[in-house]
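Bench notes, afternoon.
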Amino acid sequence: MRNLSLLTDLYEYSMANGFDAELPNTRATFDVFYRKVPDQGSFVLAAGLKQIIDQLADFHFSDSDLTYFRSLNLWRPAFIDHLATLTLDCHVHAVPEGTPVFPREPLMTIEGPIAQAQLLETLILNILNHQSLIATKTRRMVFAAKGRPIMEFGARRAQGPDSAVYGARAAVIGGAASTSDVLAAKLFHIPVAGTMAHSWIEAFPDELTAFRKWAALYPDNSALLVATYDVLTSGVPNAITVFKELRAAGHHPVGIRIDSGDIATLSRDARHLLDAAGFQDTKITISNALDESVMTSLLDQGAPIDNFGIGEKLITSASAPVLSGVYKLAAIETDGQVIPKIKISDSREKVTIPGQKQLYRLYRKSTREAFADLITGSDEQLSNTVAVVDSNPLSVNRVHHLSSFDAELILLETPIDPAQCPSDVHAIRQYSQQRLAELPAATQRLVNPDSYHVYMTTGLADLQHNLIARA
């Protein structure tokens, strides 16, 4: 694992240098949250926590780092000396990976000496924004696939090696069944999958020879790419010939892959040819710059697709390539006194929720269906009836009274100890699917999803209002 302690913006160090000098005994609480859901969805799947904990546990500066800092001539020598012996003294609260989270609610909080906590901003956002974005995009594609497996095929189109590797990890959290990326498969114990490229077929005198050579090498894993020349007059007939030879030798053909042309028509006609030849159980896999809208269209047309191989549109979240998570100061603590802090803007969407907070998911007692999330002050206790307002600054701040619910704290203390942080992506995916099943179905649809309420207590709303008025 690389030490990423320098993966931050210059101003983080400049502020930390100032905080170290001017506020040496001040602790701070920062909230990580986002305001807008990609692709006009209703929620984001949180991902990346394991990598954050790994990095925080190893947060340090090498002699080379310190030499570089001194060469910049920007900061106090005492600050650089402090970095040389720095031991991170921060506390993390976070929602578990795979949890669906909604706009404006904290999915992570960092509390610690203000200089230290400030240094973590860019590193944390870099990891959380990327993996949460890819997990969320994958969830949309899994929804569109309607139970059919999704294979992540995007390494060659990812924006660099880390995006490929950790994007594959996030894709599995979002519901992907496998990856073509061998490094990601090894690191995270993900099933690895793949067929062949057109160059294999082109390298031999003819397509049938290429298929036979492949089948000889992989008799029990023969998935053949049939779109190099002509799917229906060449690719599928040649595949059927080889499948018959494999079956006669006691092997079980896997299927075909189509990666170009009119996928809906070609897959239907290919299915007819395969079925007529007695290969009803062979699978049809498709790939070709797929996204959830194309997948939905194909299945609505009745395309007999068994698997989806998805590359660039998944690994880059091409239709919404940015998750604009932010890291905002919520409170400072000096001499035992906690002082809430707020950011105010002419744009109401950018007004923050001040103070140290907790986050609950609220469930209907009768059905265990989640119906809202609730942000409270850290010192507030939930009662059987609670007065709340919508946290959306654009909503009408009408007071609601909630009662007869079960509440679960979902912003949890998370030790900075890699051994205690869940790392099994398959277990995280299963947890995520359980959490998704608790949400109203209308919030999960891809087009015009229903809104999900994120409330804050009237006490927290009053604090926000008073700080705005004071400013």
